[in-house]
Amino acid sequence: MTASPLSIEFVTSAVDAKVLPASPAEVAFVGRSNVGKSSLINALANRKQLARVSNTPGRTQLINMFALPNGSTLVDLPGYGYAAVPGRVKQGWQKMIEGYLLDREELANVFVLVDGEIGPTKLDVQMLEWLRANGIPHTVVATKHDKVKSAKRQTRKKDLAAGCMLEPGDIVWVSASKGVGIDTLRSLVLGHLN
Ligand code: GDP
C-alpha cells in the first residue's frame, strides 16, 4: 500500500526560531548542508519546489516552516557545517538551533539526516551526541540510498549505524530520487503529528 503524499503547505521562513508561530505538534529536520534535506521534504510532499533544492550548500540559512491540514508543523532547520560561513555566523546558528531544539515545547521528534553515501560526519556525530545528552527524541535518516551500490549496501548499513552508535534497524534509509523509504518516513512523521 502506498501512503499518500504529506499534504503540507509553506507557512513562513524565519532567521530566528523564537518568532515561529505556535503549533499543536511539530517535527524538525536537521542535517549538514547538501545532505538532501530539501529533496527529502519535497519527496515527502510529492512536490518539486516546496523546499528549495540547491547546488550551493549553505544558501538556505533560514528556518522554513510547513503545516499539515490539522495545523501540526514540520520545521526545516538550516543546514549545518558549511565551511565557507565565517565562524561567528556559524556559532550564531548553532546557538539558535540549539535554543530551538531545547526550548520548543511542541517538538515531538527530530529527524537527523545523514548522507548515506558518505556516512556520518564529525558534525553529525556531535549533533547526535548532543541530542542524546539532552534527552531530545530523534530518528536518524540516511539519505541518497540510490548512491550506495547494492553490493555494498549491507556493509554500509552496518557501518553507518555503528558510526551513529545505533543498530542498523534503527536507521531509516531513503532515496528522494528513487522514492525508497519515503512511505516509511511519511508514516513516522505522521505518527508524531497526529
Ligand atoms: P540540502 O542542502 O540538504 O537541502 O540538499 P538538497 O536537497 O539541495 O540536495 C543536495 C544535492 O544532493 C542535490 O544535488 C540533490 O539533487 C542531491 N540529492 C538529494 N537527494 C538525493 C537522492 O536521494 N539521491 C541522489 N542521487 N541525489 C540526491
UniProtKB/TrEMBL annotation:
SUPFAM superfamilies given in the database record: P-loop containing nucleoside triphosphate hydrolases
One GO MF term attached to the UniProt entry: GTP binding
Pfam family, one: MMR_HSR1
Occurrences of domain EngB-type G (ranges): 23-194
Cofactor(s) this protein cannot do without: Mg(2+)
Signal peptide coordinates: none
GO biological process: division septum assembly
Keyword Cell division among record annotations: yes
PROSITE patterns reported in the protein's UniProt record: G_ENGB
Record key words, sorted: Cell cycle, Cell division, GTP-binding, Magnesium, Metal-binding, Nucleotide-binding, Septation
Similarity comment: Belongs to the TRAFAC class TrmE-Era-EngA-EngB-Septin-like GTPase superfamily. EngB GTPase family.
Protein known as: Unannotated protein
Gene source species: freshwater metagenome
